[in-house]
Amino acid sequence: MADRQRQETRFAESERPGDVEVLVVGAGFSGLYMLHLIRKLGLPVRLLEAGAGVGGTWYWNRYPGARCDVESTDYQYGFDDDLVQEWTWTERYGSQPEILAYLNHVADRLGLREDIELETRVTRLLFDEPTSRWEVSTDRGETFSARFCVMATGCLSAARLPEYPGLESFLGSWYHTARWPHEGVDFTEQSVAVVGTGSSAIQVIPLVAEQAARLTVFQRTPNFSVPAHNRPRDPEDERRIKETFAEDRRNARQSSMGVFASWVPNEKSALEVDDAERERTFEAGWNRGGFGFLNTFSDLVTSREANELATRFVHEKIRGIVHDAEVAELLCPTNHPFGTKRLCVDTDYYATYNRDNVTLVDLRRTPIEEVTPTGIRTEVGEIELDAIVFATGFDAMTGAVLDIDIRGRSGLTLAEKWAAGPRTYLGIQTAGFPNLFLITGPGSPSVLSNMIVSIEQHVEWVADCIGYLHELDLAAIEATIAAEDAWVEHSNERAARTLLPEADSWYTGANIPGKPRVFMVYTGGVGAFRRRCTEIAERGYEGFALTT
Ligand code: NA7
Predict the structure, then answer these.
(1) Please, what is the Cα angle at 43 between 38 and 45, to 5 degrees?
(2) Residue whose CA is closest, atom 25 of ligand 1?
(3) Is the pLDDT of residue 264 over 80?
(4) CA R_g for the chain
């Protein structure tokens, strides 16, 4: 308490309006927890959020069927056992409304709202070298000065629309899944298109098909999807999960993916068992549902032969579900290895193509030429539409930070620094940008792990680091080029042991025209990553330059 008072006095003296010690950008899982920990340090802090409410990705992605593909048991904060005990998840996978309600509950429960400014988009961050502070500008014309900026801007928050000519002339309604109207959309009696067949599309398609008169799905690349087998959580399960949560989460933090609800990884190779055992194991994975399927064998994303066996199994499943053989073939992914694009987790996705009102258009055979006032034209003709749903994804991993004009030392922009792809040390910092922290940035396990475990690890590390700098009265911390280069090399070397860099996925930036093709996720596992980060901090922030 004495420390807190001392710091408050010190800042009260130096403050001008708009001065804070820490500025957090984004009010999703990362930003809310970051704000909480900075408040616990007793430092002046402000959180700026573009949305009109807290929740981050769960505030924006309100399309029908939006649901987390990680089980609700895992997809919750673990830092406060009271939060775990008092919140009840009703289903195996949290729905968007339930996760949003949870985050609102957390914001209230921790009393965070007074330090959050909503409907405020950060537009510019300028590093002032003489003072080692960031000058922050927003779209409301406000300016802030902050010693530290924490980019809690999310890995999948910069939604992207394809640039088809004519969209502005379309007389119907169009939507992006990640910018869905709060009042919902009624597609009854409408002819609707969904463009895209990634995770969002695979969730929205079955529900639009049930409501609309006609649904046309425009597919550029088929994706692998496994059944979710979502179900209500029964009270006995709930009791058991709560009872052992603390220990399970402790173990998850040291694991490879940061989850405990999914299957324990099978240590056997898919190649070391006979056909019957392999089939039984795949079948059990399919029947259990969810990402656990990737753990049915140890080598599905590292061995091409094992991968081909999984591919064959899923292709057979698709062929078994979809009645029309030609449609089934179109839905079978053949241009990337199984699991190298984000594995989709669905409810009735493939079976939806058995409905009379659903048509699949293969954009590789018949690309979209233009959007017309009344529909979408491909080279074989026009499909008349009342509404278009773009489920076309995100400029992932880097899009949200690069949408802000960020200028570090010597005026270097982050866009210039990352022109050939993002370079970071631990996904936390990038050299040339002192006191700027990224939460689950490129080069960290992030989207290839349970995001919540990875977010908590990064946020705690950053809070400890800021606390340490204060303790020693240090003005700045910055990743060194040498440490960053070594980390990028290590990260690339780890990724090269897998098949993941092969796919044209958002993990590699290949979904965005002109984006450098770089694999952006650390594949060494969350446990090993955590241990490395802890060691670095214990050695006085090895690989970072600390200045007074
Ligand atoms: P994704 O997974 O990036 O999916 C986007 C889909 O949109 C994908 O099928 C794309 O095809 C397709 N797409 C993108 N641009 C176009 C154009 N120009 N024309 C046609 N089709 C296009 O985004 P989601 O929102 O589904 O999911 C993102 C993540 O959020 C998900 O993985 C979960 O982690 C949560 P492509 O495959 O690029 O050929």
Answers:
(1) 70
(2) 393
(3) no
(4) 24
Which residue's CA lies nearest to atom 21 of ligand 1? 196
| CB proximity list for 108: less than 8 A, separation 6 or greater | none
Please indicate whether residue 167, judged by its CB atom, sits closer than 6 Å to ligand 1: no
Tokens of 377: 């034209």
Report whether pLDDT(15) > 70.
no
Query: Residue 12 has what pLDDT?
Result: 42
Give pLDDT, residue 16.
62
Cβ–ligand 1 distance for 154 under 6 Å, the answer no
- CB 195 less than 6 A from any atom of ligand 1: yes
Query: 120 CA distance to ligand 1 centroid (A)?
Result: 27
pLDDT grade for 58, boundaries at 50, 70 and 90: very high
| CA-392 nearest atom, ligand 1 | 7
Determine the distance separating the centroid of ligand 1 and the alpha carbon of 372, expressed in angstroms: 22
Residue 510 makes CB contacts below 8 A (sequence gap 6+) with 503, 504, 517
Q: Which residue has the tokens 């039984």?
A: 280
Extended strands (E) in 400-465:
405-407, 436-438
Best residue among 369, 507, 511, 521 to mutate for probing ligand 1, ranked by most atoms within 8 Å of CB: 511
Model confidence at 260, pLDDT cuts 50, 70, 90, reads confident
Q: Which residue has the tokens 């089980």?
A: 71
* Contact present, 172 and 385 (Cβ < 8 Å): yes
Q: Is the pLDDT at 431 greater than 70, yes or no?
A: yes
| Residue in the block written with tokens 């709930």 | 238
Average pLDDT score, the chain: 95
Q: What is the pLDDT of residues 80-103, one digit of tens each?
A: 999 999 999 999 999 999 999 999
Query: Tell me: the pLDDT tens digits for 442-490?
Result: 999 999 999 999 999 999 999 999 999 999 999 999 999 999 999 999 9
**34 C-beta closer than 6 A to ligand 1:** no
> Helices marked H in 91-132 — which ranges?
96-109
Centroid of ligand 1 to alpha carbon of 55 (angstroms)? 22
200 lines ligand 1 (CB under 6 A): yes
Residue 4 has pLDDT above 60, yes or no: no
Pick among 3.90.1200.10, 1.10.10.10, 3.30.420.40, 3.50.50.60: CATH of 2-158+395-547: 3.50.50.60
Give, in degrees to the nearest 5, the angle at Cα 85 between 83 and 87: 65
Ligand 1 center from residue 18 Cα (angstroms): 39
- Average pLDDT of the segment spanning 291-302: 95
Q: Where are the domains of the chain?
A: 2-158+395-547, 225-390
Ligand 1 touching residue 196 (CB < 6 A)? yes
Q: For residue 429, which of 411, 420, 442 has the smallest C-alpha distance?
A: 442
Q: How far apart are CA 467 and CA 38, in angstroms?
A: 9
Tell me the C-alpha to C-alpha distance, in Å, between residue 187 and each of 61, 171, 190, 234, 271.
18, 15, 5, 33, 47
Question: Are the C-beta atoms of residues 195 and 392 closer than 8 Å to each other?
Answer: yes
Could you tell me what percent of the chain has a pLDDT over 90?
95
For range 156-175, the mean pLDDT: 96
